[in-house]
Every structure is written in C-alpha cells, then in structure tokens.
Amino acid sequence: MSTIIMNGKKTAQDIKDELKAEVALLKEKSIEPTLAVVLVGENQASQVYVKNKKRACEYIGIRSLSYELDCTTSEEELLKLIHDLNSRSDVHGILVQLPLPKQINEGNILLAIDPSKDVDGFHPINVGNLSVGREGFVSCTPAGIIELMKRYSIPMEGKKCVVIGRSNIVGKPISMLLLRENATVTICHSRTKDLALECQGADILIAAIGKANFVSKDFVKKGAVIVDVGINRLENGKLCGDVAYDECFDLASAITPVPGGVGPMTIAMLMKNCVLAATK
Questions:
Q1: Is 247 within 8 Å of 216 (Cβ atoms)?
Q2: Residue 97 a catalytic site member
Q3: How far apart are CA 14 and CA 152, in angstroms?
C-alpha cells in the first residue's frame, strides 16, 4: 500500500482557479466581491496570515480592503469600524484576524459582525445553522478538510472518525460536518482517558490540538486517513504538525503534510465564502 499525500497546496490552487473564473463572471454583472480584513496589533503570525489572504484575493480578483489598527485600539473603536463595514453595500465579507489584544473581548467582536458577511463562519448564528443543518457560512479550516477529502475521493459515510481537539474553530465544527457526511464521530480532548486507544479505532483521524508531533504511530491503525490541522514551530525554526509525520506515514492510507496540507485549504475556503457572500 502506498500512502497518498493529500496535497492541500495544489488542491487550494485548483479551487482558486475555479473561483477566479466565477469572479470574472460576477464582474460582468457589475458585482465585485469585496473582503474587508481587520488586523489589530503587531502579532507576527497574524501579519503573515493577512498577507497570504490579500495575495489570494489579488489572484482571484477579489477586492480587498485592509484595516491595520494600532495595538492600543479600544473595543469601542473596533466595534464602530465593524458597524460601518456592516452597513456598506460594497463590502461582502468581513474578517477580523484573531487573536485580538487583551483589552478587546473577542466574543463581542464576533457577535457584532453581520452573519451574512461573516466569511470566517464564527458568528453564533452561522455555528447554529451548521449544527441544525441549515445553510450558512462554515468556518474555513473544517470546510477545507472536508473539501480536501472529497477531492481525493476519501469516503466518509459510515467511517469511524476520531477528532482530537474540541475548539470552536476546528474540533466542534469538523465533527458536525463529518456527521453531515454520515460518518460516526468521536471527539477526544485533554481529559479523554486512553486517548491512544480511542484513536486506534479510527478510519479517519483528525488532529487539531496544537501540540507538536503529539500523535505517534501508537495512535494510528494501519490504513487510517490522517488529517493534521496543527501548525507548530520547533526550536530549530522548522514547522511541524500535531502528527509525527515520518513515523505515521507508512501506516496511513492517506495523510496531509505540514506545511502544505490543511493550511492552504483554509485560505481557499475563505475565498470561496467571500465569493458566496457576493453571489448572495
């Protein structure tokens, strides 16, 4: 059995090319998809993410508006900006880059974004829509994972899926999306007893805990599909995932690399959400 490497970079490029064609058609109807990106403070990782998002917008033909605010910005000032962007008919998507400085309550900010412009899929209304199977924006990383597996023809129906991590951004929504695909889902987390044992039964194992190389070969049954959502920087500056890639590789039937797996898919799905918002 040779292991399939699920190339998120290539798949994301395919999606961006499809969106580019879609945006060209929208522009013929005088609709210009527009994404407003708000960055507060000097977080380096956030700056890199924002730069990548702008680059993707440029490639696809999405107009991007950039708001780079000082780290001393008050919650009131940020809420005012969001209110202004909500009321602008030429802005289809609003993205506030997390994390925010400590004087700003993240929950209040996410609640303030108009759900129909919430291309990150974090607003409680969109989360609620996902949980009851209604239409709405789905957060980009989970949506990207499902899309990647579909494009590699990985069957999910009837499969036993184990998700390690219960965050609102990845763990919970990916669980609901897998249920939508008729998979049987187990969610594990830091308090799970016999974590490795739980994982050993998984046909599809999704690691999203933010611990470098945490998932060893003892967690993986032969032939499992492994999706690594983690992105961690080691002391030598190298990036790695939550999965010990080299030791799990031969056991897996398919695996995502880090970098170049789930990461590029996240941005591609953000772009997809933005085009969807403009179409609506």
A1: yes
A2: yes
A3: 13
Report the CATH fold assignment for 140-262.
Answer: Rossmann fold (3.40.50)
Summarize pLDDT for 70-124 with one digit per residue, the tens. 999 999 999 999 999 999 999 999 999 999 999 999 999 999 999 999 999 999 9
| Catalytic status, residue 159 | no
Domain segments of the chain as ranges: 30-115, 140-262
pLDDT tens-digit readout, 174-192: 999 999 999 999 999 999 9
From 97, 117, 118, 172, active-site residue? 97
DSSP classification of residue 137: P
Q: Is 200 a catalytic residue?
A: no
**CATH fold for domain 30-115:** Rossmann fold (3.40.50)
Q: Are residues 145 and 254 in contact, defined by beta-carbon separation less than 8 angstroms?
A: no
Tell whether pTM > 0.85.
yes
Residue of 117, 118, 120, 228 marked active site:
120
